[in-house]
Specification:
By secondary structure, the chain is mainly beta. Helices cover about 0% and strands about 45% of the residues. Strands 3-2-5-6-10 form a five-stranded antiparallel beta sheet, with no helix packed on it. Strands 12-11-14-15-16 form a five-stranded antiparallel beta sheet.
Length: about 230
């Protein structure tokens, strides 16, 4: 990316120096060969919407990426393995020009993780509560992972919500919704259970993550009102 302000330059030659690019030694992990897709979306201060489409990749793989840097330049990445069985997303990190780092995707062990690539997080509007607990982040920093548990037969995920110890919601997938909840103060607990077929995924075949919110009155603004402490086991 080469953002310009005011007008299009007469000379469109873009020749960044090594101190203007970041080098990423990128590894795409896979227990078995598999097709997938990946793309790195440019996010800038003057154009905060990423455009693009997944490009085919074969897991496992390694490559060297040269990434644009500069004021306001960030990147959002999305990868699928399966294809489409598990999607992992990054946040919108920025790289420093002249830096050299390692980046891993789908590196074991896969586990539930609430990263900044969540999409939508925990919400409360009136007496309705929504929880999102993606089940398959990796060991890389801030990688959130979602599974297609409705179509892929190699994985399962079930998410439950408890209010004062009583189950009030149970859904397939990462999302759980407690409608028409008691407006009084209650302690909410969210539990998500995931499984992966070891014949296909090998590691992290089972995980449980739970979070508990302190009792508090609902906010009328619709902003999240639950702050959860979480733990996971694999």
């Amino acid at each position: 990316m080469w953002p310009q302000c005011g007008a299009i330059p007469k000379d469109l030659t873009y020749q960044p120096g090594k101190n203007e690019l970041a080098v990423l030694d990128t590894k795409f992990h896979g227990g078995k060969p598999a097709d997938g897709g990946e793309f790195r979306y440019s996010i800038t201060d003057n154009f905060p919407v990423g455009f693009g489409f997944p490009e085919k990749i074969r897991f496992p793989a390694e490559r060297t990426d040269y990434v644009s840097t500069g004021s306001g330049q960030r990147w959002h990445e999305s990868l699928t393995s399966g294809p489409g069985a598990i999607e992992q997303r990054s946040g919108t990190p920025a790289s420093r020009g002249g830096s050299h780092a390692e980046l891993n995707w789908f590196k074991p062990v896969l586990h539930p993780w609430l990263g900044t690539g969540l999409g939508w997080g925990q919400q409360r509007r009136g007496n309705d509560l929504k929880f999102n607990t993606p089940g398959w982040g990796d060991s890389g920093p801030d990688h959130t992972g979602f599974g297609d548990v409705w179509n892929a037969d190699s994985m399962t995920q079930t998410t439950e919500v408890y209010a004062n110890g009583v189950r009030v919601a149970r859904q397939t997938g990462s999302g759980a919704y407690a409608w028409n909840s008691d407006p009084g103060e209650q302690t909410y607990k969210v539990v998500t259970d995931t499984t992966l077929n070891p014949e296909r995924w090998r590691l992290a075949t089972k995980a449980t993550r739970s979070g508990r919110s302190a009792p508090r009155r609902p906010r009328p603004t619709g902003r999240p009102s639950c702050r959860c402490s979480t733990s996971a086991s694999t």
